[in-house]
Amino acid sequence: MDISINTPALLFPAISLIMLAYTNRFLALANLIRTLHDKYKSEDNKMLLHGQIKNLRYRMKLIKNMQALGVLSFILCIVCMYFIYINWMRLASILFAMALLAFTFSLLLSLLEIQKSNKALELQLSDMEGLEDPSVIEYIRKKFEKE
């Protein structure tokens, strides 16, 4: 496979946008942690908060690794472009493949973090009675029963 200097450059906008999204997730999580910390200090019933704290710690680790893999992908693209420039095509191809893999793993961690985020919201709702999360089929069945 022949790649030009434009090939790794195509990933720059995608990596930049995903890094912006990761940073926004990190900032939102940091704000949530600060709020939860204040709540933890003032509240007596801390059992619900313990589950949230555990979830937030795991999500922070995921976001840190997502960002690290995104940066690694960016760096690999830059180094790949350098090797294309000096005409070391074999090494450039390997670096580009590594950049794609790093970006892919970053996105997979992002998917896992989104799932954990949903679990955190479910945990937040767990202390409210009668708000079970029905499956899609149950939801549709209840809609038809009402009519």
Task: Describe the overall structure.
The protein is mainly alpha-helical. It has one domain. It contains five helices and no strands. The chain has helices at residues 6-9, 11-42, 47-85, 89-125, 136-146. Helix 2 runs antiparallel to helix 3 (47-85) and helix 3 (47-85) runs antiparallel to helix 4. The longest helix is centred in the middle third of the chain and has 39 residues, at 47-85. The chain is elongated, with a radius of gyration of 22 Å. The N and C termini lie far apart (60 Å).
Quick take:
The protein is mainly α.
Order of helices and strands: HHHHH
Q: How many individual helices?
A: 5
Tell me the overall shape.
elongated
Q: Which structural class do you get from the secondary structure elements?
A: mainly alpha
What number is the mean pLDDT?
85
Strand content: under 5%
Distance between the termini: 60 Å
Q: How would a textbook summarize the main sheet?
A: none
Q: Say how many strands there are.
A: 0
Percent helix among the residues? Answer: over 70%
User: Roughly how many Å is the radius of gyration?
Assistant: 22 Å
Please give the domain count: 1
